[in-house]
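Morning!

This is the sequence you dropped in the shared folder:
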Amino acid sequence: MDAYDTGSDARQRPDGEPGAPEGGAGARAVLPAAGEPLAVPHPPPPYDLPPPPEPRTGVAALSLRYQIGAALALAVVAVTVCVHLGMTFLHVAPANAVTKQHGQAIDDWIYPEFEQNWKLFAPNPLQQNIAVQVRAQVLTEDGTVRTTGWYDLSAEDGRAIDGNLLPSHTQQNELRRAWDFFVATHGTDNRPVGLRGALSETYLRRIVMLRLDRDDAAGPGGSVERVQVRSRTTSVRPPKWSKEQVSLKPLYRELPWWSVTSADLPGGGR
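The structure's back. Tokens below.
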């Protein structure tokens, strides 16, 4: 028998190399072929580790001091929203005991930024374009009086709003609300009705004087002595599929000339 013979239990592998005997303590591990890495088994961990905690996000990631600050800020926002919704509801609701007792506080909250205008949703919505225009009599530097042309103040506001993603409340509503206020407190003869008539006149005068000053209507060395305001109302053209017939001819409402006082000038009411 050859010196390398492993005995009768030795088996020959298909490739001709001697293999390990079947079972038993005498079995030998088969070494990898030349060039193959030696696989070293890793021992299992002594115990299973818990998964790492998930990172905190949002408010939970803040420190306790900032969490308290964020909670207070959210509480203030929630209270403000609830108060605003309540004030708006009381403003549009029919007259009741709360509005009769606290009507002034409700109006102070709503006007002018949160005014509710329901003309769009009325049974007969407004279908007219109303433009407010003004002209002035100017005392020139040489002592002569000249009358300016009509300044279309509504068109100026329209040009300021076009293309402006965040138009101001002044550009959108100041002139329109002033004219609505005047019309609501005056009759068709342009005479004031009630105690608010004089207030609406003063308000409208100051607005048109501010606009004339901005447009430099007086010119160098001149001063505005009198102003006249008018409205130009045109009907909105109905859609092509409608059979409604409306007149597109503009209608004018001219107010009488007003003499300018020092209170009407910019800064004169302070």
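Headline: The first strand starts at residue 128 and ends at 139.

More detail when I'm at my desk.
O.
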